[in-house]
Specification:
The chain is of the alpha/beta class and 342 residues long. The protein folds into 2 domains: 5-104 and 251-320 and 329-340, no CATH class; 107-249, Periplasmic binding protein-like II (D-Maltodextrin-Binding Protein, domain 2). Helices cover 30% and strands 16% of the residues. It is built from 10 helices and 12 strands. It has helices at residues 5-19, 24-31, 37-51, 90-94, 125-133, 162-178, 202-211, 221-225, 279-292, 332-335, and strands at residues 106-113, 122-123, 155-159, 196-199, 215-220, 230-232, 234-236, 242-244, 247-249, 271-272, 305-311, 317-324. Strands 1, 3, 4, 5, 6 and 9 form a 6-stranded mixed beta sheet that branches. Strands 2-7-8 form a 3-stranded mixed beta sheet. Strand 7 (234-236) and strand 8 form a beta hairpin. Helix 5 runs antiparallel to helix 6. It is globular, with a radius of gyration of 21 Å. The protein starts with a helix and ends in a 7-residue tail after the last helix.
Length: 342
Amino acid sequence: MARAWVYHAALAFLALSVLIPCSTAAIAKAWGGAQPLEPVANALIADWNKQAKPALRFGAYDPSSSSNGIAGFYNGTYLIGAASEPISADKEIATIPKITVPLAIVTYSFFVTKAAGAKPLVLTAQQSLQIFDGTIKSWGDVPAAAAAKLTGAITRIGRSTKVATTAIIQQTWVKAGAGYPASGDTTGKPLTYAGIVPAATGNEMCAKIAATPNSIGYSHTGGCKKARGVAEVALKNKAGAAVLSNSWNPIIALPTVVPGPDKSWDKVDLIWTTNAKAPPMVSMQYSFIKKNLKKVPGGAAAKAFLLFAIPKASGKAAVGGFLPVPPKWWAPSFKAINSVVV
């Protein structure tokens, strides 16, 4: 996947222009650095939505998401996911028809400011939720905080978008095996967003946690683990044992493939990656998608995935994605993308 990355991205850009010709001019300007990404993304969304029949819509471009991507939503039949729009629980996924298995995964975990000689912080699921919903405002109310050298008022750091903050926090303690709070409440109180320090990206989140004494936040597990000045938080599971607060999160997309009356794809879905300039991550996601595609209703009709990137004015790619291409839409330019043929 990492092989000939720029070459494949360029080919994919050409292929994308075949699919969505109305956007070609706008995308070309951005490719040359003459225009910021946001209007290009919005033009792409508008053109895509005009062509989608029946309605399969994207939300608005969301520059605050960790992928600088497109915020997705579902209408009861289809779901389009993005890094800013995670699905909050298995039971929620189960309520959406046609959706059976996540197509991509990412891990999140809680992190706190790390001090020299500090012991790992272990929280209960209830404590972790109460910290973020504002019930617990001081580390003095958390018995384990003293050993972790966390004192005084708690500074909470969260994603800039409310839905991501809510869902990621919920998933983190649920997927850690800690279970829901004793009350059975699956959501907790509404988060007091006014008190949460916003961060637009995972890297920014890690940096703010490290630079802010007595702070707690969450981010991609791998990124924060490599950052200095932060320590991963553990949660107590139902048996009372400490487990890492690592959660899997189907933030990129869920299957939305529904075969048409003629058993071929008459709908397609755009699936954003977390980082178009990180071939290892993209490769992992592609492998996961390829492995699970057969489990998706109608997935056998997919013959290729189109990998592409739209760069910012700086020239660095800001958005990447996989576009399942129905066979009847194939073009010669697709055939050159050998590394992404299913």
